Amino acid sequence: MHLYFWFIRLAALCGHRKAQLLAQGQREVWSRLQAVVDSRAEGKKWIWFHVSSVGEFEQARPILERLRAEHTPYQVLLTFFSPSGYEMRKSYDQVDLVAYLPFATRANARRFLNLVQPEISIFVKYEFWPAYLKELKKQGRATYIIAAIFRKSQLFFKPWGHWYRRLLHCFTRLYVQDTPSKDLLAKYGITNVVVAGDTRFDRVTRIASESKNIELAQLFREAVNPLDETPTPCKIIVAGSSWPQDEELLAQYMQERKDVKLILVPHEIHEEHLHYIFQLFQGQLVRYTRATKNNIGQCRTLLLDTMGMLSSIYKYADVAYIGGGFGEGIHNTLEAAVWGIPVLFGPKHHKFREAQGLLQAGGGYDVTDYKTFKHAMDDALLHADEMGQKAKAYVQSELGATERICVSLEKLRIENGELKIEN
Questions:
Q1: Alpha carbon distance 332, 161 (integer Å)
Q2: CB-CB contact of 207 with 311 (8 Å)
Q3: Average pLDDT, integer, range 117-134
Q4: CB atoms within 10 A of CB 333
């Protein structure tokens, strides 16, 4: 672990942007923590949430906001490991402090916990930091993990994984996404487990209910096909969080299907990548930041070159394609599925329970190359209503994780200003 942290510092010195952000955040974290601890009202205690990045934050958020509302005598600390997550949510106003997690050495874990003294600590999904978990256990502090998911292939369950598996005994309770996770843990004597589901289903449903109307996107959807001699509205594909290999498939499809339109939302929107997309689509697109009511209907591709709009853009789609499946893994499929539209994605989806659920429900397709992409997209456009209803029904069937976790945690209750925990 120490070698990893030295590598981060070395990368920062060499100009790596994320490493620089992480190194700077680590330098500032102790003074920021000390200032907030010193200024807190007498008797106030912390609830500490730790997440890796933005995706895990979205899983924590429904629980965090409910606990925040219902347990007002407590302050909330939110820590991130990822610089991208921290940078995106450092101004989040539902907590008292957003900070980096101090590098996970035994000395840092002890110093952090002695300083903050969290009454409750909540980790999300895959966050297992040995130094922190061991110190939390040693200090007898209530520690939970939510939206966790376990598979036989994980290090915990390898023949040599005994040492790492011992970390799971540091949790007061584990809230897992599915029954197979609970059954797997039970085989190794870990029984303080509750099958609660995935809070992201609740989160995306709330986001959809609060979505913004985007006038230019509506005009783009309603504009007739500029290539059609007898103009008619086109079916709309929204491609979210796309990477270059995703964009190559989409560009080829748009060349072959003249009766559809595309709203393209790339994962990276720096100018170099936007220029690459412009060339790939042979200039036949309009950038959102340069779109007007007059030119929005002149091209069949609308390129979203701004952030924070994707979850609302899906409402204008007939079919969604989610990027990342040809790289490290697909991005958020649920933000699209909640709108009752078919969802397509690349081959690297096997670690994503929600993607498996969509496939099993008949609400989505996975693709491996252009041939399978074309077949899947043609079929999804043809049967958009039917497949979309299956996708939406799947999302609705998975709602309620927030309630289940909070009802269980309500055995954390306030009595005379103190948090009581009933196991």
A1: 30
A2: yes
A3: 94
A4: 28
